[in-house]
Amino acid sequence: MLSLGAHVSPLLSSPPHAPLLLYSRPPSRSPAAPAAAASAPRSLCFLRRSRSRSRSRFAAGRTRRPTMAEAISLEAGGDLYHDLGSAAVTAGVALALLKFFEELAKRGVFEQKLSRKLVHISVGLVFLLFWPLFSSGTYAPFLAALAPGINIIRMFLLGTGLMKNEAMVKSMSRTGDYRELLKGPLYYATTITFATSVFWRTSPIAIALVCNLCAGDGIADVVGRRLGTEKLPYNPNKSYAGSIAMALAGFLASVGYMHYFHTFGFIEETWYMALGFLAVSIAATLVESHPISSELDDNLTVPLTSFLVGILLF
User: H-helix or E-strand containing 236?
Assistant: First the structure.
């Protein structure tokens, strides 16, 4: 009895997990077995967790959204392709318009002076209509300026005699001399290229430059030749009718394009801007009617005046 109590008393005084040892394997066998048995489930859990993590990473990689830098680069690339397409359309329309007037000159539909002025009025104003096609990207104004920029090269090649095109020379010169293209037509293309690439569609100066050059100066010659019986006292080659028509045409065209670009959100439509356009058109008309403008060239003095007065007002 004493020996049995001696054997039972250690069992009762052992820790709570000790009775489990009575039903487990004898400790005489490998003591590492319980550790291996305990470690096996942990390794399986680790494998399952690692597989689930890899699957979640794979799924996240498939559904990952582009970063801000990637989104900006994609948007910039899309704008570039869009602007290249817009530049191609604009250049195509400008060239088609020039070809149209070349054909009219070949067929003698209009007299040479009227044909030249129709080209002068229409090309620049139609070009402005296509500015909203372009995006707000950095390269948009430069790509838009490709069409008049190409025309600068054409005027230079035709004016120097390196390229021959009698129909174009006839539709754009006063006397049919190809060397005239190095003056008025070259200044014309340079002005539109400058207004497009430097000021663009958010500036009233660009509107004033193109509208007073195209609408103002072009209408002045057409009206002056037909209704200009009363000449100006300081210049017998200019008339009251032509000068009034120039101021009105330049002003109305400027206000019209102010409203046009305002509908696209490019420019703010205000009375101050409208009055500024009126002041620019009057100043350009006064300079155009002066004899010095005939000595130099209307296509140089009119946009130069519009630029200087526009800088002061806008």
Answer: strand 235-239
Partner residues linked to 239 by β-bridges: 231
Which tokens is 152 given?
A: 């600068």
Most confident range, picked from 9-18, 34-43, 152-161, 244-253: 244-253
The rounded percent of the chain whose pLDDT value lies above 90 is 48
268: DSSP letter: -
**The two three-digit tokens of residue 161, written as one number:** 């005699």
- Listed in sequence order, the residues at least 6 apart from 242 whose beta carbon sits closer than 8 Å to its beta carbon are 220, 221, 223, 224, 225, 227, 228
What is this structure's pTM? 0.72
Q: Are strands 235-239 and 231-232 parallel, antiparallel or unpaired?
A: antiparallel
Q: Please, what is the end-to-end C-alpha distance for the chain in angstroms?
A: 118
Per-residue pLDDT reduced to its tens digit, 72-88:
444 556 788 999 999 99
CB distance 199 to 209 below 8 Å? yes
| Predicted confidence band of residue 8 (pLDDT cuts 50, 70, 90) | very low
Which two structure tokens, joined as six digits, stand for 55?
Answer: 């699957």
Q: Could you please report the per-residue DSSP string of 79-121?
A: HHHHHHHHHHHHHHHHHHHHHHHHHHHHHTSS-HHHHHHHHHH
**HSE-up of residue 51 (Cα within 13 Å, Cβ side):** 6
Q: List helix spans (H) across the chain.
A: 2-12, 33-62, 68-107, 112-129, 140-144, 146-159, 166-172, 184-194, 204-211, 217-227, 240-263, 271-289, 291-295, 298-313
